[in-house]
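Good day; I would like, with your permission, to put a structural problem before you. What I wish to show you is a protein chain and, alongside it, a tokenised description of its three-dimensional fold. Thank you for your consideration; the sequence and its tokens are set out here:
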Amino acid sequence: MHRQAALDCAMLTQVAGCLRQTVREITPLVDVLYFKAAPLAVLECCATLEALAEEVEQDDVQTVAERAREEAR
């Protein structure tokens, strides 16, 4: 159980990294939009993806670790 939790946590960390990489890739594209004053959903993408990456890295990893401890009992 401990080994599987460690593998899952590593995968979650990798997912968070992918989300952050996406932020790095789309930020320059969003930065050059001319109509940034318009109510565009794309303007929230970077902040939303970064928040999601943090949640995956912290909350999801903690949840997996807790579940593994519960199942190990």
Notes: Residues 42-72 form the longest helix (31 residues).
